[in-house]
Design goal:
With about 250 residues, the chain is of the alpha/beta class. It is built from 11 helices and 9 strands. A 6-stranded parallel sheet has the order 3-2-1-7-8-9, sandwiched between helices. A 3-stranded antiparallel sheet has the order 5-4-6. The chain is elongated and about 60 Å long.
Length: about 250
């Protein structure tokens, strides 16, 4: 796989949950993942968010708002090195953990959205991830002081509206600008590194196929087989091993 990377001029990475599990972030669909929780099917459902936003804020209290304490892992650092070497033009990610940006990657297309910004559902006011984390922590302390420690705090705007992260929920369209930029990158890539994803969630999973159709090569590193394995120029199963090889 290092031979392919060494010969490529325009590398694009396509990353999924496996890249982040190396940092301790649970896979949504894994044994301890989000979708094993009670009301899991409602947590990222926009209709349920409108009805009862506490379902989201309870389900994601640690998974999303605990991300402030998570550091980038070896794959994030390896991709930053490839960018610094002038070989990687950008990262397409299905993840919502912002770890590629923490690692210093310049071009990151978050095709399933991001919690970096939250918007009020009523007036549209914006708050940063750090601001929402601070609101949640202060709100939880207030609930605890009032003897209501078991309740879920929901951050609200001064207008009374609920803040929602710019994560794409079920029932919402993918972020158009990010997806179009990702599509353009896939068309431009002479090598796409598919890292830590089983390629089962569409339309995102169609981007490596697009790169192949335009004559680019695909190299896959994932713990389980994917539907594109038969078309890959190289296959690996160990992300930590891949990152170690790139980092030297």
């Amino acid at each position: 796989m290092l031979d392919l990377i060494g010969k490529a001029d325009r590398i694009v990475a396509f990353t999924g949950a496996g890249v982040s599990t190396l940092c301790g972030v649970p896979d949504f669909r894994g044994p301890q993942g989000l979708y094993r929780q009670k009301d899991a099917e409602r947590i990222f459902d926009i209709d349920w968010f409108e009805r009862d936003p506490s379902i989201y804020y309870r389900g994601c209290r640690e998974l999303v708002y605990g991300l402030k304490d998570v550091k980038p892992g070896p794959v994030h650092r390896a991709l930053k090195k490839l960018e610094d070497d002038g070989r990687l033009i950008g990262v397409i990610t299905q993840n919502i953990d912002m770890l590629h940006q923490k690692a210093g990657s310049s071009n990151v297309w978050e095709i399933h959205g991001t919690p970096a910004v939250h918007h009020c559902r009523r007036c549209g006011a914006a708050r940063t991830f750090a601001e929402i984390c601070a609101m949640i922590e202060a709100g939880e302390k207030s609930l605890e002081a009032a003897g209501r420690a078991g309740e879920t705090f929901v951050p609200r705007c001064g207008c009374g509206g609920v803040f929602k992260p710019d994560i794409t929920f079920f029932g919402e369209a993918l972020p158009e600008a990010a997806f179009m930029s990702a599509r353009e990158a896939a068309l431009e890539a002479d090598l796409m590194l598919v890292l830590g994803t089983s390629l089962t969630v569409y339309p995102a999973a169609g981007l490596p196929e697009l790169a192949l159709r335009r004559g680019g090569k695909v190299a896959i590193v994932n713990g389980q087989p994917t539907m594109l394995d038969d078309h890959a120029a190289a296959i690996g199963r160990d992300l930590a091993e891949f990152a170690s090889a790139v980092l030297g």
